[in-house]
Amino acid sequence: MARLIYILNGPNLNLLGQREPEVYGHTTLADVESACTTLAAGLGLELRFLQTNHEGQLVDWVQDARGAAAGIIINPAALTHTSIAVLDALNAFDGPVIELHISQVHKREAFRHHSYVSQRADAVMAGFGTHGYELALRHMAHVLG
Ligand code: DQA
Q1: pLDDT band at 1 (very low <50, low <70, confident <90, very high)
Q2: How many CB atoms are closer than 10 A to CB 41?
Q3: Longest dimension (CA), the chain
Q4: Residue 116 designated active-site
Q5: Any catalytic annotation for residue 54?
Q6: Domains in the chain, please, with CATH?
Q7: Which of 39, 109, 116, 132 could cysteine-pair with 128, CB 3.0–4.6 Å?
Q8: Which residue has a Cα nearest atom 3 of ligand 1?
């Protein structure tokens, strides 16, 4: 059976492609999901690709991943910078966690420079644009061996 990877997306990423395209680009989240689904099949991975605007939903999905997923790729969006609850949920997950940001957060406002999630993440990616999702999947496949 293919190993399952959760790709979790936080608030406002449903607007990808429309929202601040100068920062996040023109690719939609559906485009990203479709590219990741094709790549995952080639890598022998199965995907659950999800987005929510709600902190509690993100916590619930991270909890669901326990015992179900081999790894998590997460773009917590603004919750990166505010959510101890998402960090705590990730701390209860045993597999590899990759934190991903489309934009290069360290080049942006100071409030985006701190990430609670980075205290748990095994790898952190920022500034690769939406292509970062595919890079993260490849890295996940490499790490899982
Ligand atoms: C983001 C960066 C966050 O600071 C921001 O709140 C987002 C998206 C990114 O992918 O670059 O919503 O996580």
Answers
A1: low
A2: 12
A3: 44
A4: no
A5: no
A6: 3-77+86-144 (3.40.50.9100)
A7: 132
A8: 77
